[in-house]
Amino acid sequence: MKKYSILSALILLFSFGLFSQEIVEVTKAVDKSKTGVSSDSTKHWNISGMGTLNVSQAGYSNWVAGGDNSLGLIGMVNLNINYSKGKHAWANIIDLAYGFQFLGIGTSAQQYNKTDDKIEVTSTYGYEIHSNKKWYFSVLANFRTQFSNGYKLPNDSTVISTIMAPGYLVAGVGITYVPAKWFRVYLSPTSGRFTFVLDTALSNAGSFGVTPGQQIRGQFGPYLRADLNKDLAKNINLTSSLELFTDYLNQFGNIDVNWNILLTLKVNKWLAATINAQVIYDDDVIQRTQFKEIIGVGLSYKFD
C-alpha cells in the first residue's frame, strides 16, 4: 500500500509540473499570435515558480564503521499563477511536496520513512480600491492537506494522519496590501477556519482538535497571511509564507502560526540546492512548536 501511495504522489507531482509548463508555453504562444509581439508586454497572466527533484543514496559493503544502505527522494513544485487586468487581480499559489527514504535496503530490516508530504493551494481575488495598485478589497481561500498516510514510527501500523485527516480550509474577506510585486499582505478580521478529519478512527479519537466522533471543526477569527517571493541575487530565490490566526470564540489571543521558507540556490538551468524550513504552532494538535527542515541538491526547473 505504501508503494502505491509513493508512486501516486510522485506521478502527480511530475504530471503537474509538465502540465504547468504546457500552460506557460500555450499562454505565450496565444499572446504572441494575437499581437505579433512577445507576450511579456501584453499578457495578463503570469506564471512563475520552481520544480525540484532531490535524490540521496548511500551504500555500504563490509564497512567497519557501520551504516545502513539508503535511498531518499523528495519532489517539490512551487507555482505562482497570477492574473491582472484593470482593477482586477487574482493571485494563486500552489505548493506541493512529497519525499521518502528507504533505510536498510537489501536487508530484512528494510524500513520506509516519509520525509515530506504537503498539498497547499491559496487563491486570492482582489479589486483595486486605490489608484496606486497597492490596496485591494480581497476574498481569500487557503486549503492544505497531505498525499498519504503518516505513521507513528517505529510502529508503521499506527496511522496518525492521512489525506483530509487533517485537512484545513481558511476562507475570508479582507484587505490586501501589495507594496511591491514580490511581497503582499492579506488581513481579514472575519475569516472562517475549518479543520477536517475524515478518517473515522482519527475523528473518534478527537485528533487535531475536533470533538471526538465529529469530522469537522469550525473556528472564526482574524487571519493574516504574508507572502514573499524575491530573487535575492541572479541565482538565489527566497520564497516565504506566514499565516497567523486566532479564534474569537475559544482562547482568543492564542495565535496559530504556520510559517514556510524556501531558499533556492541555482547552480545552472537544471541543478539547484534547496533549503526548506517550516514552523507550526497549533495547540489543538500539540502544545509545542513543530519544526521541519530539509536540505537537498538535485534537478530543478524554473517556470517563467
CATH topology group: Outer membrane phospholipase (ompla), Chain C
Secondary-structure element order, N to C = HEEEEEEEEEHEEEEE
Helix content: 10-25%
Annotated CATH architecture: Beta Barrel
Structural class: mainly beta
Helix tally equals 2
Oligomer: single chain
Please give a quick description of this structure.
The protein has two helices and 14 strands; from the N terminus they run αβββββββββαβββββ. The protein has helices spanning 2-35, 200-204; strands at 45-58, 70-85, 88-103, 111-128, 135-145, 150-152, 155-161, 167-180, 183-196, 216-233, 236-245, 256-268, 271-282, 286-303. It has a twelve-stranded antiparallel barrel with strand order 1-2-3-4-5-8-9-10-11-12-13-14. The protein has a two-stranded antiparallel ribbon with strand order 6-7.
Structure characterization notes:
It is a single chain. The protein has 304 residues and is mostly beta strands. It has a single domain (2-59, 67-303), classed as Outer membrane phospholipase (ompla), Chain C. 13% of the residues lie in helices and 61% in strands. The chain has helices spanning 2-35, 200-204; strands spanning 45-58, 70-85, 88-103, 111-128, 135-145, 150-152, 155-161, 167-180, 183-196, 216-233, 236-245, 256-268, 271-282, 286-303. It has a 12-stranded antiparallel barrel. Strands 6-7 form a two-stranded antiparallel sheet. The chain is flat, with a radius of gyration of 21 Å. 28% of the residues are buried.
